[in-house]
Amino acid sequence: MTLLNFLKKKPPALLKVFVDGAPLCTVTSDNLPRELTPTAAVRPDSEVLFLAADGTEHRHALGEVQGWAHLSVRVHENRACQADCVITNSPQFDANAFSRGEALGVRFQPFFLPGSTVTNSELKGKGLFARGLHFSGRVTPGNIVLSCECDCCHRSFLIKSYHAGFSNSGYFYSGSGKYTLTVSSYLAGAPSALAEPEPAALAALEARLPDAPDGSRFSYLNPFRCPYCGAPYIDFAAHPESRSSEYYGNYFAGSELLRYEPAEP
Fold first, then answer.
1. Where does 146-220 have alpha helices with state H?
2. How far apart are the first and last CA of the chain?
3. Which among 19, 174, 199, 246 counts the fewest CB atoms within 10 Å?
């Protein structure tokens, strides 16, 4: 290293990543786009922190998993950050473990770093495609969980998704946002992937649906809510145009989908 290189001012940190408080990697503002692939040991309730240059924190709890988290942290030229990890039992990353169903994938909610022309608040209440948690034309594997970040309280929560089109099952969220009810897409009025239900038939079906376990009602335009503060996360009332295109039904990790089976006539 020459003296000139030694004295050269280092570019500022654009993003720092920590696991359980320990620094893991740093992305600087030069040489974008950039991908870093660090590995860290994780235990139940481990937390990944993405710390932006302006002090904004994006904290993601990993739940009950343990082992080794093999991360991919990607920062694009527009300063959008996409990150995910595969959790295995070995510190050595096996690229085929995930495809064999032997590893869990966690996809973190993407966000924009300081200097981007897009602000994170612009995505408030929008669906998972707009947020970059699902991708049109690509099926999200069943062994991926999504780590979402509430727009209001900013706490993270883990969810699972199912493809409503492939399973021929429409979905309704409860008024409380705590429960997801699936129905056969062959029922009159049932929501189908990429199609608007007929209003009168939809209203008749909604009237027949049972109450959720907490007494709230299921409805087509109910939001999917933050489990902590109850604020709408996927806000279909604010963005009704996105309802039919959100063809993944979602439910919280550790919970089960409910199923409506109409009584035989």
1. 164-167, 199-208
2. 82
3. 199
